[in-house]
Design brief:
- By secondary structure, the protein is mainly beta.
- Helices cover 3% and strands 42% of the residues.
- The strands form 8 sheets. A 4-stranded antiparallel β-sheet has the order 4-5-6-7, with no helix packed on it. The protein has a 4-stranded antiparallel β-sheet with strand order 8-9-10-11, with no helix packed on it. A 4-stranded antiparallel β-sheet has the order 12-13-14-15, with no helix packed on it.
- A hairpin with a 5-residue loop joins strand 14 and strand 15.
- The longest helix has 11 residues.
- The protein starts with a strand and ends in a 10-residue tail after the last strand.
């Protein structure tokens, strides 16, 4: 599912003569929305409807069987926007704006706000954040159904809090300071969340190509990945470990079977490496420096002189910077990670089946 302008596309893939192809299966146009309507995120729900959110805090759903859609305004605030992705579970659709966390559901065929919860949005756009206030894309998790709880982190004035709400009613069951309460820390990325655990990674100080509003404060990407567990009684949460040595330029992913956290690590010299952390201890179990030829991945590299390559690379920076994007496993242990100039394919060379 992709969106562009006022149009939502459902795209299928198929194989023909041993070649894979894409085909636009269906096209839906939101005819009645304003000319400045801007999609931020869209996701299917568990009944096949397509939900979406726009930058100006509108949310809606599209019934692909009928092509009909309905839009709901989340807020009347002029400074409330949607700047992150949205999440889906059988319990509803979670949307985090720059002020509030919302859970939406269908009622009599119409989108309705089931509950909303405000949070500490802080006093400014912090370095490494792309908007003021927005915590992150929300993550559903839970030990039984997998969506009893809903979590993301705020941009609080006194530090970043990991907040956990009950999905059913929005009740706040935990709000704990992350990163040891360091005010100069924070995160833009959606947490890893499953069973009773939540893992967050620092993005404070990260320099985006299209820089955030806090350009005068952007400096050096801070270290830190931390794990929290919800208490056994379901109230409150506590830190399990905090690895202060690693620095990630990607959104970490959890390998449920491998019991490892996979990400792209950046060292003090700016070199990028594929790395893994042990879920139980937070210790680094693997680190492989990305030693590909930086010049070879430049656009039209074979047509450039060495001087032109050096000038371009100096302007672009490290082409293997993961830009705080999420990697993807293919189901066979192969890991694909988007970077500034392309996609890196990573797999275990000592395993014939390429299982990591």
């Amino acid at each position: 599912i992709l969106a562009n302008g006022k149009v939502i596309y459902r795209i299928a893939h198929f194989q023909n003569d041993n070649e894979w192809n894409f085909k636009i299966q269906e096209t839906f146009t939101l005819h009645s929305v304003a000319d400045d309507f801007e999609f931020v995120a869209l996701t299917p729900d568990w009944k096949g409807n397509i939900w979406f959110a726009s930058y100006d805090s509108q949310a809606g759903f599209l019934n692909p069987k009928t092509g009909k859609f309905t839009i709901l305004s989340l807020s009347t605030r002029k400074d409330e926007f949607v700047a992150n992705s949205i999440s889906s579970s059988p319990e509803g659709i979670a949307i985090a704006t720059t002020h509030t966390l919302y859970l939406l559901n269908l009622k009599n065929g119409q989108p309705k706000i089931s509950w909303h919860a405000n949070y500490d949005r802080g006093n400014r756009v912090k370095p490494g954040k792309l908007s003021w206030g927005t915590r992150s894309s929300p993550s559903f998790f839970g030990p039984k159904k997998g969506y009893q709880n809903l979590t993301n982190h705020d941009s609080g004035t006194e530090g970043t809090h990991l907040n956990i709400n009950k999905t059913k009613n929005g009740k706040l069951i935990a709000s704990v300071l992350a990163f040891d309460g360091d005010i100069n820390q924070g995160s833009e990325n959606s947490p890893i969340a499953f069973e009773n655990s939540v893992i967050i990674a620092s993005t404070y100080g990260f320099v985006y190509p299209a820089s955030s509003l806090a350009t005068e404060e952007v400096g050096t990407l801070k270290n830190g990945i931390q794990r929290f567990d919800v208490n056994k009684n379901g109230k409150g949460a506590k830190a399990v470990w905090f690895n202060k040595k690693v620095r990630t330029t990607s959104v970490p992913k959890m390998g449920k079977n491998s019991n490892r956290i996979h990400f792209i690590n950046e060292d003090s010299e700016g070199k990028q490496a594929y790395a893994e952390l042990d879920f139980e201890t937070g210790n680094v179990t693997k680190k492989v420096v990305i030693e590909l030829d930086s010049y070879s991945v430049l656009p039209n590299a074979n047509q450039l002189t060495q001087e032109q390559k050096e000038l371009m690379l100096n302007r672009i920076g490290n082409p293997f910077d993961a830009l705080q994007m999420a990697g993807l496993f293919d189901g066979n242990g192969i890991f694909y990670q988007g970077t500034k100039l392309g996609i890196i394919k990573i797999f275990s060379s000592d395993n014939k089946n390429r299982k990591q």
